Amino acid sequence: MAEHKVVVIGAGMAGLVSALQLANAGLQVTVVDKAAGPGGKIRQLMPNGVAVDSGPTVFTMRWVFDQILAELGTKLESELTIHPLNILARHFWEDGSQLDLFADPAQSLDAVARFAGRAEAERFKHFCQTARQVYDTLEGPFIKSPSPTMGQMMSSLGPRGLATLASVGPMRSLWNSLGRHFTDQRLRQLFARYATYCGSSPWEAPATLMLIAQVEMDGVWAVEGGMHALAACLMRLGKARGVNYLFNNECERVELNQGKVSGVRLAKGDSLRADSVVFNGDIAALRKGLLGPSLQKSVSDKLPPRSLSAVTWSMHADTGGMSLDRHNVFFRNTYASEFEDIFTHGRLPTQPTVYVCAQDRGTGTTPEGAERLLCLVNAPARGDKTQSEDELQACAQSSQALMAASGLHLKLESTASCIRTTPQDFQQLFPATGGALYGQATHGWMAAFARSNARSQLPGLYLAGGSVHPGPGVPMAAMSGRLAGAALMADLGLTSVSRKTVTSGGTLTH
Question: Is residue 289, in this structure, part of any structural domain at all?
Protein backbone atom coordinates (compact mmCIF):
# COMPACT_ATOMS: atom_id res chain seq x y z
CA MET A 1 0.00 0.00 0.00
CA ALA A 2 1.11 3.56 -0.61
CA GLU A 3 2.65 5.42 2.29
CA HIS A 4 0.37 7.62 4.37
CA LYS A 5 0.50 11.14 2.98
CA VAL A 6 -0.09 14.25 5.04
CA VAL A 7 -0.59 17.76 3.69
CA VAL A 8 -0.11 20.60 6.17
CA ILE A 9 -1.88 23.76 5.06
CA GLY A 10 0.04 26.74 6.46
CA ALA A 11 3.68 27.11 7.42
CA GLY A 12 3.03 29.05 10.61
CA MET A 13 4.50 27.91 13.89
CA ALA A 14 1.92 25.14 14.43
CA GLY A 15 2.20 23.85 10.88
CA LEU A 16 5.99 23.75 11.03
CA VAL A 17 5.92 21.81 14.29
CA SER A 18 3.26 19.35 13.09
CA ALA A 19 5.13 18.71 9.85
CA LEU A 20 8.40 18.15 11.68
CA GLN A 21 6.82 15.80 14.21
CA LEU A 22 4.97 13.75 11.59
CA ALA A 23 7.95 13.48 9.28
CA ASN A 24 10.11 12.37 12.20
CA ALA A 25 7.58 9.56 12.72
CA GLY A 26 8.07 8.44 9.12
CA LEU A 27 5.04 9.94 7.37
CA GLN A 28 5.25 11.63 3.99
CA VAL A 29 4.59 15.30 4.66
CA THR A 30 4.06 18.24 2.32
CA VAL A 31 3.55 21.78 3.60
CA VAL A 32 1.76 24.30 1.37
CA ASP A 33 1.57 28.03 2.02
CA LYS A 34 0.60 31.01 -0.11
CA ALA A 35 3.46 33.05 1.39
CA ALA A 36 6.98 33.06 0.00
CA GLY A 37 8.51 31.45 3.10
CA PRO A 38 7.83 30.00 6.53
CA GLY A 39 6.57 31.69 9.67
CA GLY A 40 2.95 32.73 9.17
CA LYS A 41 2.44 35.57 11.64
CA ILE A 42 6.16 35.34 12.42
CA ARG A 43 7.21 37.51 9.52
CA GLN A 44 9.84 40.04 8.60
CA LEU A 45 9.40 43.28 6.68
CA MET A 46 12.17 45.25 5.02
CA PRO A 47 12.07 49.01 5.69
CA ASN A 48 15.13 50.50 4.02
CA GLY A 49 16.07 46.94 3.05
CA VAL A 50 16.67 46.02 6.71
CA ALA A 51 14.95 42.91 8.12
CA VAL A 52 12.60 43.83 10.99
CA ASP A 53 10.62 41.22 12.94
CA SER A 54 7.05 42.37 12.34
CA GLY A 55 4.99 39.74 14.13
CA PRO A 56 5.54 38.05 17.50
CA THR A 57 8.69 39.37 19.15
CA VAL A 58 8.71 37.77 22.63
CA PHE A 59 10.27 34.32 23.07
CA THR A 60 9.02 32.60 26.24
CA MET A 61 8.18 29.08 27.44
CA ARG A 62 11.37 27.76 25.89
CA TRP A 63 10.67 24.38 27.49
CA VAL A 64 8.12 23.80 24.71
CA PHE A 65 10.88 24.00 22.10
CA ASP A 66 13.34 22.14 24.31
CA GLN A 67 10.92 19.20 24.27
CA ILE A 68 10.30 19.42 20.52
CA LEU A 69 14.00 19.40 19.71
CA ALA A 70 14.83 16.76 22.31
CA GLU A 71 12.48 14.37 20.47
CA LEU A 72 14.61 14.99 17.37
CA GLY A 73 17.84 14.22 19.18
CA THR A 74 19.06 17.81 19.29
CA LYS A 75 18.69 20.88 21.49
CA LEU A 76 17.82 24.53 21.13
CA GLU A 77 21.34 25.86 21.66
CA SER A 78 22.66 23.54 18.93
CA GLU A 79 20.24 24.95 16.39
CA LEU A 80 19.84 28.61 17.36
CA THR A 81 21.69 31.33 19.22
CA ILE A 82 19.48 32.66 22.00
CA HIS A 83 20.21 35.20 24.72
CA PRO A 84 18.38 35.44 28.05
CA LEU A 85 17.20 38.98 28.70
CA ASN A 86 18.08 40.61 32.01
CA ILE A 87 15.28 43.18 31.61
CA LEU A 88 11.98 41.49 30.77
CA ALA A 89 10.35 44.77 29.76
CA ARG A 90 10.69 48.52 30.33
CA HIS A 91 7.48 50.45 31.11
CA PHE A 92 6.81 54.18 30.78
CA TRP A 93 3.87 56.36 31.79
CA GLU A 94 3.00 59.78 30.46
CA ASP A 95 3.45 61.21 33.96
CA GLY A 96 7.19 60.55 33.52
CA SER A 97 7.46 57.44 35.70
CA GLN A 98 9.33 54.33 34.57
CA LEU A 99 9.56 50.74 35.80
CA ASP A 100 11.76 47.88 34.63
CA LEU A 101 10.89 44.29 35.44
CA PHE A 102 13.83 41.91 35.61
CA ALA A 103 14.58 38.23 35.14
CA ASP A 104 15.92 38.32 38.71
CA PRO A 105 12.89 38.44 41.06
CA ALA A 106 14.90 40.28 43.73
CA GLN A 107 15.74 43.05 41.25
CA SER A 108 12.08 43.37 40.26
CA LEU A 109 11.01 43.55 43.90
CA ASP A 110 13.54 46.29 44.58
CA ALA A 111 12.49 48.18 41.45
CA VAL A 112 8.82 48.07 42.45
CA ALA A 113 9.70 49.29 45.96
CA ARG A 114 11.51 52.31 44.49
CA PHE A 115 8.68 52.86 42.00
CA ALA A 116 5.64 52.53 44.27
CA GLY A 117 6.82 52.07 47.85
CA ARG A 118 7.63 49.14 50.09
CA ALA A 119 3.99 48.27 50.86
CA GLU A 120 3.21 47.97 47.15
CA ALA A 121 6.34 45.86 46.70
CA GLU A 122 4.95 43.43 49.26
CA ARG A 123 1.70 43.31 47.28
CA PHE A 124 3.74 42.67 44.15
CA LYS A 125 5.52 39.81 45.91
CA HIS A 126 2.16 38.29 46.87
CA PHE A 127 0.88 38.74 43.31
CA CYS A 128 3.92 36.86 41.96
CA GLN A 129 3.23 34.02 44.36
CA THR A 130 -0.39 33.88 43.23
CA ALA A 131 0.56 33.97 39.54
CA ARG A 132 2.95 31.06 40.13
CA GLN A 133 0.24 29.06 41.89
CA VAL A 134 -2.26 29.71 39.10
CA TYR A 135 0.26 28.68 36.43
CA ASP A 136 1.27 25.53 38.30
CA THR A 137 -2.38 24.67 38.86
CA LEU A 138 -3.44 25.03 35.22
CA GLU A 139 -0.36 23.87 33.33
CA GLY A 140 -1.20 20.16 33.47
CA PRO A 141 -5.01 19.97 33.42
CA PHE A 142 -5.48 22.80 30.91
CA ILE A 143 -2.40 24.03 29.04
CA LYS A 144 -0.93 20.58 28.35
CA SER A 145 -4.26 18.75 28.09
CA PRO A 146 -5.17 17.80 24.50
CA SER A 147 -8.88 18.53 24.94
CA PRO A 148 -9.76 20.07 28.28
CA THR A 149 -13.34 20.39 29.48
CA MET A 150 -14.56 22.14 32.58
CA GLY A 151 -15.56 18.88 34.22
CA GLN A 152 -12.30 17.09 33.44
CA MET A 153 -10.23 20.01 34.62
CA MET A 154 -12.11 20.35 37.88
CA SER A 155 -11.71 16.65 38.62
CA SER A 156 -7.98 16.86 37.82
CA LEU A 157 -7.28 19.88 40.00
CA GLY A 158 -7.88 18.25 43.34
CA PRO A 159 -8.60 20.15 46.56
CA ARG A 160 -5.44 22.27 46.45
CA GLY A 161 -5.95 23.30 42.83
CA LEU A 162 -9.58 24.12 43.39
CA ALA A 163 -8.63 26.21 46.41
CA THR A 164 -6.11 28.13 44.29
CA LEU A 165 -8.73 28.94 41.67
CA ALA A 166 -11.25 29.89 44.32
CA SER A 167 -8.77 32.30 45.89
CA VAL A 168 -8.21 34.01 42.52
CA GLY A 169 -11.90 34.21 41.72
CA PRO A 170 -12.01 32.81 38.17
CA MET A 171 -15.39 34.44 37.56
CA ARG A 172 -13.81 37.85 38.13
CA SER A 173 -12.22 39.78 35.31
CA LEU A 174 -8.47 40.19 35.25
CA TRP A 175 -8.88 43.94 35.87
CA ASN A 176 -11.11 43.33 38.87
CA SER A 177 -8.79 40.73 40.32
CA LEU A 178 -5.72 42.94 39.94
CA GLY A 179 -7.54 45.64 41.91
CA ARG A 180 -7.41 43.26 44.87
CA HIS A 181 -3.64 42.95 44.52
CA PHE A 182 -2.48 46.50 43.80
CA THR A 183 -3.39 49.96 45.05
CA ASP A 184 -1.07 51.65 42.53
CA GLN A 185 -3.06 51.89 39.29
CA ARG A 186 0.10 51.82 37.21
CA LEU A 187 0.92 48.29 38.39
CA ARG A 188 -2.67 47.30 37.78
CA GLN A 189 -2.31 48.59 34.21
CA LEU A 190 0.99 46.82 33.68
CA PHE A 191 -0.26 43.36 34.61
CA ALA A 192 -3.67 43.88 33.01
CA ARG A 193 -1.75 44.29 29.76
CA TYR A 194 -1.16 40.55 29.68
CA ALA A 195 -4.78 40.04 28.59
CA THR A 196 -3.82 41.57 25.25
CA TYR A 197 -1.32 38.74 24.72
CA CYS A 198 -4.47 36.66 24.14
CA GLY A 199 -6.08 39.43 22.11
CA SER A 200 -8.52 40.27 24.88
CA SER A 201 -9.73 43.10 27.08
CA PRO A 202 -8.62 43.10 30.73
CA TRP A 203 -12.20 44.07 31.62
CA GLU A 204 -13.55 40.88 30.01
CA ALA A 205 -10.69 38.37 30.32
CA PRO A 206 -10.75 35.95 33.27
CA ALA A 207 -8.54 36.51 36.29
CA THR A 208 -6.66 33.29 35.54
CA LEU A 209 -4.81 35.08 32.73
CA MET A 210 -2.52 36.46 35.41
CA LEU A 211 -0.58 33.25 34.78
CA ILE A 212 0.94 34.98 31.73
CA ALA A 213 2.91 37.13 34.15
CA GLN A 214 4.51 33.94 35.44
CA VAL A 215 5.34 32.85 31.91
CA GLU A 216 7.46 35.99 31.47
CA MET A 217 8.97 35.77 34.94
CA ASP A 218 10.15 32.27 34.02
CA GLY A 219 12.33 33.88 31.36
CA VAL A 220 12.35 35.88 28.14
CA TRP A 221 14.96 35.27 25.45
CA ALA A 222 16.14 37.07 22.32
CA VAL A 223 16.69 34.92 19.24
CA GLU A 224 19.67 35.93 17.14
CA GLY A 225 18.36 36.64 13.67
CA GLY A 226 14.93 37.44 15.10
CA MET A 227 11.93 35.25 15.71
CA HIS A 228 11.94 34.45 12.02
CA ALA A 229 15.11 32.46 12.66
CA LEU A 230 13.04 30.08 14.80
CA ALA A 231 10.68 29.40 11.90
CA ALA A 232 13.62 28.93 9.52
CA CYS A 233 15.21 26.52 12.01
CA LEU A 234 12.09 24.34 12.18
CA MET A 235 11.87 24.26 8.38
CA ARG A 236 15.53 23.29 8.10
CA LEU A 237 15.01 20.44 10.55
CA GLY A 238 11.88 19.42 8.65
CA LYS A 239 13.72 19.32 5.32
CA ALA A 240 16.36 17.08 6.88
CA ARG A 241 13.56 14.64 7.72
CA GLY A 242 11.99 14.71 4.30
CA VAL A 243 9.31 17.40 4.57
CA ASN A 244 8.47 18.95 1.20
CA TYR A 245 7.65 22.69 1.37
CA LEU A 246 5.61 24.32 -1.39
CA PHE A 247 5.58 28.09 -0.98
CA ASN A 248 3.77 30.59 -3.18
CA ASN A 249 1.05 27.94 -3.37
CA GLU A 250 -2.36 28.85 -2.00
CA CYS A 251 -4.70 26.03 -1.04
CA GLU A 252 -8.02 26.47 -2.84
CA ARG A 253 -9.94 23.65 -1.18
CA VAL A 254 -9.66 20.40 0.70
CA GLU A 255 -11.03 17.51 -1.34
CA LEU A 256 -13.15 14.71 0.10
CA ASN A 257 -13.98 11.18 -0.89
CA GLN A 258 -16.92 9.48 0.79
CA GLY A 259 -16.92 12.06 3.58
CA LYS A 260 -13.20 11.77 4.37
CA VAL A 261 -10.20 13.88 3.44
CA SER A 262 -8.63 12.71 0.19
CA GLY A 263 -6.42 15.60 -0.92
CA VAL A 264 -6.05 19.33 -1.48
CA ARG A 265 -6.40 21.40 -4.62
CA LEU A 266 -4.07 24.35 -5.08
CA ALA A 267 -5.07 27.64 -6.62
CA LYS A 268 -2.60 27.02 -9.45
CA GLY A 269 -4.64 23.96 -10.44
CA ASP A 270 -2.49 21.17 -9.03
CA SER A 271 -3.93 18.51 -6.73
CA LEU A 272 -2.09 16.72 -3.94
CA ARG A 273 -3.32 13.40 -2.61
CA ALA A 274 -3.60 13.36 1.16
CA ASP A 275 -4.75 10.71 3.60
CA SER A 276 -4.74 13.37 6.33
CA VAL A 277 -4.66 17.17 6.35
CA VAL A 278 -3.46 19.45 9.15
CA PHE A 279 -5.00 22.89 8.79
CA ASN A 280 -2.74 25.53 10.36
CA GLY A 281 -4.92 28.59 9.95
CA ASP A 282 -7.71 30.45 11.68
CA ILE A 283 -10.76 28.21 11.85
CA ALA A 284 -12.85 31.22 10.82
CA ALA A 285 -11.67 30.43 7.27
CA LEU A 286 -13.16 26.94 7.52
CA ARG A 287 -16.38 28.24 9.04
CA LYS A 288 -16.75 30.67 6.13
CA GLY A 289 -16.11 27.93 3.55
CA LEU A 290 -12.91 29.38 2.12
CA LEU A 291 -11.48 25.86 1.69
CA GLY A 292 -14.71 24.45 0.31
CA PRO A 293 -18.32 24.44 1.51
CA SER A 294 -18.01 20.82 2.67
CA LEU A 295 -15.60 21.97 5.40
CA GLN A 296 -17.97 24.47 6.97
CA LYS A 297 -19.40 21.82 9.28
CA SER A 298 -15.96 20.59 10.32
CA VAL A 299 -15.90 23.17 13.12
CA SER A 300 -18.52 24.71 15.38
CA ASP A 301 -20.81 27.16 13.64
CA LYS A 302 -20.89 29.45 16.67
CA LEU A 303 -19.37 32.87 15.99
CA PRO A 304 -17.18 33.80 18.98
CA PRO A 305 -16.06 37.41 19.46
CA ARG A 306 -12.95 38.26 17.48
CA SER A 307 -9.73 38.98 19.31
CA LEU A 308 -7.64 42.10 18.88
CA SER A 309 -6.03 43.16 15.66
CA ALA A 310 -3.25 45.76 15.49
CA VAL A 311 -1.73 48.64 13.61
CA THR A 312 2.03 48.21 13.38
CA TRP A 313 4.90 50.30 12.07
CA SER A 314 8.07 48.43 11.09
CA MET A 315 10.85 51.02 11.13
CA HIS A 316 14.51 51.63 10.59
CA ALA A 317 14.90 54.87 12.52
CA ASP A 318 17.14 56.99 14.70
CA THR A 319 16.01 57.24 18.32
CA GLY A 320 16.79 59.93 20.85
CA GLY A 321 15.76 61.43 24.14
CA MET A 322 15.65 58.27 26.24
CA SER A 323 17.09 54.78 26.62
CA LEU A 324 15.02 51.94 25.25
CA ASP A 325 15.47 48.28 26.08
CA ARG A 326 14.35 45.40 23.86
CA HIS A 327 10.71 45.33 25.01
CA ASN A 328 9.09 48.66 25.91
CA VAL A 329 5.52 49.64 26.75
CA PHE A 330 4.22 53.23 26.85
CA PHE A 331 1.10 53.66 29.00
CA ARG A 332 -1.44 56.43 29.37
CA ASN A 333 -2.37 57.54 32.85
CA THR A 334 -5.87 56.24 32.09
CA TYR A 335 -6.53 52.86 30.50
CA ALA A 336 -10.19 51.91 30.05
CA SER A 337 -10.90 54.08 26.99
CA GLU A 338 -8.57 51.98 24.82
CA PHE A 339 -10.72 48.88 25.25
CA GLU A 340 -14.01 50.77 25.16
CA ASP A 341 -13.00 52.17 21.78
CA ILE A 342 -11.94 48.76 20.44
CA PHE A 343 -14.52 46.34 21.82
CA THR A 344 -17.53 48.58 22.45
CA HIS A 345 -17.29 51.10 19.61
CA GLY A 346 -15.27 49.07 17.08
CA ARG A 347 -12.84 51.89 16.34
CA LEU A 348 -9.15 52.59 16.67
CA PRO A 349 -8.29 53.81 20.16
CA THR A 350 -7.92 57.56 20.54
CA GLN A 351 -5.64 56.98 23.54
CA PRO A 352 -3.66 53.85 22.65
CA THR A 353 -0.98 52.12 24.64
CA VAL A 354 2.14 51.66 22.49
CA TYR A 355 4.47 48.66 22.44
CA VAL A 356 7.95 49.15 20.96
CA CYS A 357 10.33 46.28 20.25
CA ALA A 358 13.85 47.70 19.83
CA GLN A 359 15.40 44.70 18.15
CA ASP A 360 19.03 45.79 18.37
CA ARG A 361 18.89 46.18 22.16
CA GLY A 362 18.75 44.03 25.25
CA THR A 363 21.72 41.77 24.64
CA GLY A 364 24.49 44.04 25.84
CA THR A 365 24.91 46.13 22.70
CA THR A 366 23.82 49.70 21.98
CA PRO A 367 23.05 50.46 18.34
CA GLU A 368 24.82 53.32 16.61
CA GLY A 369 22.67 55.25 14.18
CA ALA A 370 19.36 53.93 12.90
CA GLU A 371 17.94 50.87 14.64
CA ARG A 372 15.24 48.30 13.94
CA LEU A 373 11.92 48.98 15.65
CA LEU A 374 8.45 47.49 15.66
CA CYS A 375 5.78 49.80 17.10
CA LEU A 376 2.34 48.32 17.76
CA VAL A 377 -1.03 49.54 19.00
CA ASN A 378 -4.10 47.40 19.51
CA ALA A 379 -6.97 47.74 17.06
CA PRO A 380 -10.41 46.25 16.45
CA ALA A 381 -10.58 43.27 14.12
CA ARG A 382 -12.67 44.95 11.47
CA GLY A 383 -10.23 44.63 8.60
CA ASP A 384 -13.06 43.34 6.42
CA LYS A 385 -14.68 46.77 6.68
CA THR A 386 -13.57 50.18 5.47
CA GLN A 387 -11.17 52.11 7.66
CA SER A 388 -10.39 55.72 6.86
CA GLU A 389 -6.91 57.10 6.42
CA ASP A 390 -7.87 59.96 8.74
CA GLU A 391 -8.57 57.49 11.54
CA LEU A 392 -5.24 55.73 10.97
CA GLN A 393 -3.36 59.01 10.92
CA ALA A 394 -5.02 60.17 14.13
CA CYS A 395 -4.00 56.92 15.82
CA ALA A 396 -0.41 57.35 14.61
CA GLN A 397 -0.25 60.94 15.86
CA SER A 398 -1.64 59.98 19.26
CA SER A 399 0.91 57.17 19.54
CA GLN A 400 3.79 59.45 18.57
CA ALA A 401 2.63 62.06 21.08
CA LEU A 402 2.62 59.48 23.89
CA MET A 403 6.14 58.31 23.09
CA ALA A 404 7.34 61.91 22.83
CA ALA A 405 5.78 62.74 26.20
CA SER A 406 7.94 59.99 27.70
CA GLY A 407 11.00 61.43 25.94
CA LEU A 408 11.29 59.14 22.90
CA HIS A 409 11.82 60.88 19.58
CA LEU A 410 11.98 58.97 16.31
CA LYS A 411 13.59 60.23 13.14
CA LEU A 412 13.01 58.52 9.81
CA GLU A 413 15.31 59.02 6.84
CA SER A 414 12.48 58.65 4.31
CA THR A 415 9.05 57.15 3.79
CA ALA A 416 10.84 53.91 2.84
CA SER A 417 12.08 53.72 6.44
CA CYS A 418 8.63 52.78 7.75
CA ILE A 419 6.11 50.13 6.67
CA ARG A 420 2.64 50.31 8.17
CA THR A 421 0.40 47.24 8.56
CA THR A 422 -3.31 47.71 9.32
CA PRO A 423 -6.20 45.37 10.21
CA GLN A 424 -7.09 45.45 6.49
CA ASP A 425 -3.61 44.16 5.67
CA PHE A 426 -3.89 41.42 8.30
CA GLN A 427 -7.29 40.46 6.85
CA GLN A 428 -5.58 40.01 3.47
CA LEU A 429 -2.88 37.87 5.06
CA PHE A 430 -5.29 35.84 7.19
CA PRO A 431 -8.67 35.74 5.39
CA ALA A 432 -12.01 35.58 7.24
CA THR A 433 -10.46 36.94 10.45
CA GLY A 434 -11.09 40.65 10.00
CA GLY A 435 -7.44 40.94 10.94
CA ALA A 436 -7.87 39.25 14.34
CA LEU A 437 -4.43 38.02 15.37
CA TYR A 438 -5.33 35.72 18.26
CA GLY A 439 -8.36 33.74 17.09
CA GLN A 440 -11.31 34.38 19.39
CA ALA A 441 -11.18 36.76 22.32
CA THR A 442 -10.76 35.09 25.71
CA HIS A 443 -13.71 36.86 27.31
CA GLY A 444 -15.31 35.12 30.26
CA TRP A 445 -14.29 32.05 32.23
CA MET A 446 -15.71 29.57 29.70
CA ALA A 447 -14.10 31.11 26.61
CA ALA A 448 -10.94 29.01 26.93
CA PHE A 449 -13.05 25.84 26.76
CA ALA A 450 -14.85 27.02 23.63
CA ARG A 451 -11.80 26.61 21.39
CA SER A 452 -11.72 23.66 19.01
CA ASN A 453 -9.26 20.91 19.77
CA ALA A 454 -6.96 19.14 17.34
CA ARG A 455 -9.59 16.80 15.88
CA SER A 456 -12.12 18.46 13.60
CA GLN A 457 -15.57 17.01 12.95
CA LEU A 458 -14.38 15.78 9.55
CA PRO A 459 -12.42 12.48 9.37
CA GLY A 460 -8.83 13.09 8.36
CA LEU A 461 -8.83 16.84 9.07
CA TYR A 462 -6.81 18.09 12.04
CA LEU A 463 -6.60 21.64 13.39
CA ALA A 464 -3.59 23.60 14.63
CA GLY A 465 -2.72 27.22 15.31
CA GLY A 466 -3.56 30.06 17.63
CA SER A 467 -7.32 29.85 17.04
CA VAL A 468 -7.52 26.36 18.59
CA HIS A 469 -6.51 24.90 21.95
CA PRO A 470 -4.37 25.84 23.86
CA GLY A 471 -4.58 29.32 22.30
CA PRO A 472 -2.51 32.12 20.76
CA GLY A 473 1.17 32.94 21.12
CA VAL A 474 4.27 31.30 19.65
CA PRO A 475 4.78 28.55 22.27
CA MET A 476 1.04 27.84 22.50
CA ALA A 477 0.78 27.56 18.72
CA ALA A 478 3.75 25.19 18.77
CA MET A 479 1.94 23.12 21.39
CA SER A 480 -1.17 23.04 19.20
CA GLY A 481 0.98 21.73 16.36
CA ARG A 482 2.24 18.95 18.60
CA LEU A 483 -1.30 18.12 19.70
CA ALA A 484 -2.49 17.92 16.09
CA GLY A 485 0.41 15.66 15.18
CA ALA A 486 -0.17 13.49 18.22
CA ALA A 487 -3.89 13.16 17.46
CA LEU A 488 -3.18 12.15 13.87
CA MET A 489 -0.59 9.57 14.92
CA ALA A 490 -2.85 8.20 17.64
CA ASP A 491 -5.63 7.73 15.09
CA LEU A 492 -3.18 5.72 12.99
CA GLY A 493 -2.12 3.64 15.97
CA LEU A 494 1.27 5.34 15.95
CA THR A 495 2.27 6.74 19.32
CA SER A 496 6.07 6.63 19.22
CA VAL A 497 8.19 9.53 17.98
CA SER A 498 10.68 7.08 16.49
CA ARG A 499 10.84 6.88 12.70
CA LYS A 500 8.47 4.35 11.11
CA THR A 501 6.78 3.82 7.78
CA VAL A 502 3.02 4.25 7.93
CA THR A 503 0.63 3.03 5.25
CA SER A 504 -2.60 4.73 4.34
CA GLY A 505 -4.48 1.92 6.07
CA GLY A 506 -2.68 2.55 9.35
CA THR A 507 -0.50 -0.61 9.18
CA LEU A 508 2.98 -0.08 10.59
CA THR A 509 6.11 -1.62 9.17
CA HIS A 510 9.51 -1.09 10.73
Answer: yes
Give the per-residue SS3 of 270-310: CEEECCEEEEECCHHHHHCCCCCHHHHHHCCCCCCCECCEE
The one-letter code for the residue type at 158 is: G
Residue 375: helix, strand or coil by DSSP?
A: strand
Q: Comparing C-alpha atoms, which of 437, 374, 81, 376 is closest to residue 230? A: 81
Domain count, the chain: 2
Q: What is the CA radius of gyration of the chain?
A: 23
Sequence-distant (≥ 6) Cβ neighbours of residue 279 within 8 angstroms = 9, 10, 254, 286, 291, 456, 461, 462, 463, 464, 465
Claim to verify: residue 277 and residue 240 sit in the same structural domain: yes
Task: Please report whether residue 311 resides in a domain.
Answer: no
Cα–Cα dist 504/145, whole Å? 28
Alpha-carbon dihedral of residues 301, 34, 61, 126, nearest 10 degrees? -50
Residues 213, 131: contact at Cβ < 8 Å? yes
CA distance 105 to 504: 52
Q: Do 195 and 241 fall into the same domain? A: no
Provide the residue range defining the domain that includes 467: 5-42+61-81+225-304+445-509
Q: Report the alpha-carbon distance of residue 97 to residue 113 in Å, rounded.
A: 13
pLDDT of residue 263: 96
Question: Of all residues in the chain, what percent carry a pLDDT higher than 90?
Answer: 80
In the chain, which stretches have pLDDT less than 50?
1-2, 496-510
To the nearest 5 percent, what fractions of the chain are helix, strand and coil? 40, 20, 40
- Is this prediction's pTM over 0.85? yes
Q: What is the CATH number of the domain that holds 461?
A: 3.50.50.60
Query: 37 and 71 share a domain?
Result: yes
- What pLDDT is recorded for position 494? 79
Question: Is 20 domain-assigned?
Answer: yes
Give the containing element (helix H, strand E) for 133.
helix 118-138
> 244 and 291, same structural domain?
yes
Among the candidates 145, 177, 210, a domain finishes at 210
Is the domain of 183 the same as that of 127?
Answer: yes
How confident is the model at residue 480, as a pLDDT? Answer: 97
Q: Are residues 295 and 252 in the same domain?
A: yes
**C-beta separation of 373 from 231 below 8 A:** no
**DSSP H or E run through 180:** helix 174-181
| Domain assignment present for 348 | no
